[in-house]
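Design job #97: recover the sequence.
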């Protein structure tokens, strides 16, 4: 049965307002169906392709596609050369530089924002480094709000419309209440971050854990401005194979260590959205005290500060200095990397045994450090993962390493646009 407005209005002969409401709801559903079919595709689809995929009539698809084009969510490409007699198909693709999403982040040593368009291009970005340990949240978020306003003004001056923003924070986040519960490495706890940004009410802002957003960013890499053809940032399960498996554990190494559990391309968040705190897995209960208040947490062995300290490198030095020391074979740096890899391997082994994951993506500073960590990691995983004799864990560098939480935040905003495009159309 075709899922279009005309067939449903005949089959549901209710009257007046109820009929209009049902037809309106069905239009929204069908519009979202067509939108998702366009954005899910790894190669551009025509109206006929979408009709065949969705089960809608060609006439219905044509009307809905026209609405998406008018809303500047979709654009038409030049007609394809026909393989047989008939009208050439007109491919459809996400619109460039029209509706955009804003990803914001506060981390321990930087704050920043990234604007992404529907094709996956980074259209604007600003990152400000700084030591934010023990900082004043009102002051830091006020600065981030000013940065966000600059980015919004920049893209709006180019006729782009910002659909919303996601704020990534390194800690336990109650997204439903908009509350940061605790961010140990920042020294922040128990407050509502969004009002401190001072952004206009017309810009909806939600908060999320930075590692979770960074994990979502791994599903498709963004396209830097001017580098290659734009790609849809939102491939779905009916598209071609994604660049990473549909299920994986993402681990981000910075001063703190966070992770995201992605199952079938969706985050596993747990009951309160607090899953993935791998940085506070106990490596040694008699180890050094962590900023969270416990002792022997993974962050105290494999976090950035821990590795620099063990290597005898100042904590305010860039991680590249640690990498240079490793390349030069400096003994203290090699020992620090070996200890970090061992601790990280033990923590990962626990996760793998618990959730039976086959792929681990290492992001943040771990992306570049992986060659120096791999031997110790592999030793621990082989020893401690029960299934290791029958399957090999796939350890990979993250697809998106730098500021991945901003990319993931912007992409999450755009996923909401694609899933509910009726909010952007003018049709009744």
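Job complete. Output follows.
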């Amino acid at each position: 049965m075709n899922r279009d407005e005309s067939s449903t209005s005949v089959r549901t002969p209710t009257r007046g307002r109820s009929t209009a409401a049902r037809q309106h709801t069905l239009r929204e559903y069908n519009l979202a169906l067509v939108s998702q079919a366009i954005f899910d595709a790894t190669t551009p689809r025509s109206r006929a392709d979408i009709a065949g995929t969705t089960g809608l009539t060609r006439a219905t698809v044509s009307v809905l596609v026209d609405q998406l084009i008018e809303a500047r969510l979709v654009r038409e490409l030049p007609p394809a050369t026909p393989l047989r007699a008939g009208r050439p198909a007109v491919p459809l693709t996400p619109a460039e530089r029209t509706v955009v999403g804003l990803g914001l982040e506060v981390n321990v040593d930087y704050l920043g924002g990234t604007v992404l368009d529907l094709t996956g291009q980074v259209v604007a970005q600003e990152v400000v480094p700084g030591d934010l340990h023990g900082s004043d949240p009102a002051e830091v978020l006020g600065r981030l709000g000013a940065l966000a306003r600059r980015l919004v003004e920049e893209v709006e001056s180019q006729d782009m419309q910002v659909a919303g923003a996601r704020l990534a924070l390194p800690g336990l986040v109650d997204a439903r209440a908009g509350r940061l519960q605790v961010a140990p490495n920042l020294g922040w706890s128990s407050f509502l971050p969004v009002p401190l940004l001072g952004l206009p009410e017309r810009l909806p802002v939600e908060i999320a854990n930075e590692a979770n957003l960074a994990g979502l960013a791994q599903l498709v890499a963004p396209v830097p401005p001017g580098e290659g053809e734009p790609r849809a940032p939102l491939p779905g399960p009916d598209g071609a194979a994604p660049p990473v498996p549909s299920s994986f554990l993402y681990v981000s190494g910075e001063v703190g260590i966070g992770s995201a559990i992605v199952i079938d391309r969706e985050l596993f968040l747990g009951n309160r959205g607090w899953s993935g705190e791998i940085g506070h897995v106990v490596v040694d209960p008699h180890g050094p005290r962590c900023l969270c208040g416990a002792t022997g947490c993974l962050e105290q062995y494999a976090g950035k500060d821990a590795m620099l300290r063990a290597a005898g490198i100042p904590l305010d030095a860039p991680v590249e200095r640690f990498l240079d020391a490793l390349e030069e074979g400096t003994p203290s740096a090699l020992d620090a990397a070996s200890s970090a890899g061992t601790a990280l391997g033990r923590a990962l082994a626990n996760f793998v045994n618990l959730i039976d994951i086959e792929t681990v993506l290492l992001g943040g500073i771990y992306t570049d450090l992986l060659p120096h960590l791999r031997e110790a990691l592999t030793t621990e995983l082989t020893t401690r993962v029960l299934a290791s004799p029958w399957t090999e864990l796939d350890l990979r560098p993250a697809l998106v390493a730098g500021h991945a939480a901003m990319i993931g935040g912007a992409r999450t905003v755009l996923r909401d646009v694609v899933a509910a495009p009726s909010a952007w159309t003018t049709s009744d």
